[in-house]
Amino acid sequence: MKSKTKAPARKSVVKLAPRSAKSAVPSKPNNMGKKSAKSNSAPPPAKPLQFPKRKPTAEEIVHQQSLDRFTAGLELMNQGNYAKAKSVFERLMDNSSRELAERAQIYLNICQQRAVRPSLHLKTVEEMYDYAVSLANEGHPEQAEEHLRKALKLAPRADFLYYALAATFALRNDVEGTLEYLDKSIQINQRNRFQAQNDPDFENMLEDPRFTELIYPERPLS
Questions:
Q1: What is the pTM of this model?
Q2: Among 179, 133, 188, which residue's Cα sits nearest to residue 159?
Q3: Helix H segments across 79-116?
Q4: In this structure, what DSSP letter does residue 201 have?
Q5: For the chain, what are the domain ranges?
Q6: Each residue of 201-216: pLDDT tens digit?
Q7: Taking the CB of residue 56, how many other CB atoms lie within 10 A of it?
Q8: pLDDT band with cut points at 50, 70 and 90 for residue 30
Q9: What whole-number distance in Å separates Cα of residue 216 and Cα of residue 188?
Q10: Nearest to 68 by CA among 93, 88, 47
Q11: CB-based burial of residue 190 (10 Å sphere; 0-12 exposed, 13-18 middle, 19+ buried)?
Q12: Burial (0-12, 13-18, 19+ Cβ within 10 Å), 31
């Protein structure tokens, strides 16, 4: 008998339905162009750094005081007051700051050069008076007084010499000396009373009632 061969069993084929494009790729929410409220808010401004104030040391305070004195010396020199400026710069020569001491030495030499005057041979009252006025204007009222007193020995009744002496005392804030010599000048010449009323040399005397009484005798007492 011939053996019968069995035909191979057929495999069942399952046809899968094609997936649509929409179902193949899961949809994602479209957030393009949309920002959260958090991203729209501006970041807070940065706070400035605050450092505690440092107190100056004792050395810094002393150095600042020396600088202030140096500046005052320069102002005196520019005003022609070489004697006082020289005194300021001399005190700064021993300063701990080498740079400041060297600068003080430079300006001290300048003051010494400018303060040197040639020997003068003043003979007349007018020459002595003119020279004294120039000294007072340059900030040397003490030297001006010296020459005015010499002139008074030659002309003891010269009212303008007493008036100039009163002005030199006013520049030094010497109230008693100002009143004494201004009174003498007015006794010799009444016109000095009216001149003193508008003279800027006596501005620092305006608050003294004795001065106002001297130059305004006709003014009633309040």
A1: 0.49
A2: 188
A3: 82-91, 98-115
A4: G
A5: 58-115, 125-215
A6: 999 999 999 999 999 9
A7: 11
A8: low
A9: 17
A10: 88
A11: exposed
A12: exposed
| CA dist., res. 185 & res. 167, Å (int) | 11
Q: What is the DSSP string of 41-86?
A: SPPPPPPPP--PPPPPPHHHHHHHHHHHHHHHHHHHHHTT-HHHHH
Q: Which of 211, 158, 167, 209 is nearest to 187 (CA)?
A: 158
Q: How far is CA 173 from CA 101, 121, 157, 176, 214, in A?
A: 32, 30, 25, 9, 17
Q: Give how far the C-alpha of residue 206 lies from the chain's centroid of Cα atoms, to the nearest Å.
A: 28
For residues 133 and 220, give the distance between their C-alpha atoms in angstroms, rounded to a whole number: 34
User: 């900030």: which residue's tokens?
Assistant: 139
pLDDT in tens, 114-170: 776 655 688 899 999 999 998 888 888 888 999 999 999 999 999 999 999 999 999
Cβ atoms within 10 Å of 90's Cβ, excluding its own: 14
Tokens 């005003």 -> residue: 79
**% helix, strand, coil for the chain, step of 5:** 60, 0, 40
Residue with tokens 């005081």: 65
Q: Which two tokens stand for residue 27?
A: 């949809």
Are 63 and 86 contacting, i.e. CB atoms less than 8 angstroms apart? Answer: no
Q: What is the CATH number of domain 125-215?
A: 1.25.40.10
Residues in the chain: 222
